[in-house]
Design a protein that fits this description.
207 residues; alpha+beta; Ctag/Cox11 (Pfam 04442); five-stranded mixed beta sheet; 1 helix; elongated
Length: 207
């Protein structure tokens, strides 16, 4: 009769499972913000305009009125304005809007624009080919820059039961200041000892 096979301790397996769970949850916490942003850009969720890689192949005769709203957050010393308050565009046609930003401070500032679309349901159909909101922007003291936004309204807007009856929508941008990254600590260089004057050495004497 063969001896019974040894059983693995249940406590050890439970500990390994808990460690694995904590690792997964920690990773999910760090990834939550970029994953949420990528999800919104891909689906138009929460009024987020979707990023496009190519223009629409179909242009409709129907027009929409696009309104532009600009803001800065938390007293950021930038002046941010749309150079046109509104545009009338055909659904599916590629359009371009311009925005002007001025840094009114005596220091360089980096900002990033958060954006959304109102009504929320329209976000899935606003497609952007180019936008300053895709990356951080740095302005030198008192510098002014002009940024284009190249976009179109997907033709699906005209057939979606939730949006087909709407005649206008608003693209809103809010610049938020990005805190500068801390400078890397300077490494102190240690001078090499002169010949004959190393640690523990005795200075040479002339004869």
């Amino acid at each position: 009769m063969s001896p019974p096979s040894p059983r693995k301790p249940r406590h050890g397996r439970l500990a390994l499972m808990l460690v694995g769970l904590v690792t997964i949850m920690t990773g999910a916490g760090f990834a939550a913000v970029p994953l949420y942003k990528a999800f919104c850009q891909a689906t138009g969720f929460a009024g987020t305009a979707r990023r496009a890689t190519a223009a629409s192949s179909k242009v409709l005769d129907r027009e929409l009125e696009i309104n532009f709203d600009t803001n800065v957050a938390n007293g950021m010393p930038w002046t941010f304005k749309a150079e046109q308050r509104k545009q009338r565009v055909k659904i599916g046609a590629t359009s371009i809007a311009f925005f002007k930003v001025t840094n009114g401070s005596d220091r360089a500032i980096t900002g990033r624009a958060a954006y959304d679309v109102s009504p929320d349901q329209s976000g899935a159909y606003v497609r952007k080919l180019q936008c300053f909101c895709f990356s951080e922007q740095t302005l030198a003291p008192h510098q002014t820059m002009e940024f284009p936004v190249v976009y179109f309204i997907d033709p699906g807007y005209a057939t979606d039961p939730e949006t087909k009856g709407w005649g206008d929508l608003t693209l809103s941008y809010t610049f938020v200041e990005i805190a500068p990254k801390p400078a890397a600590p300077a490494t102190e260089k240690i001078a090499a000892p002169k010949r004959g004057e190393g640690l523990g050495s005795t200075p040479a004497r002339g004869l």
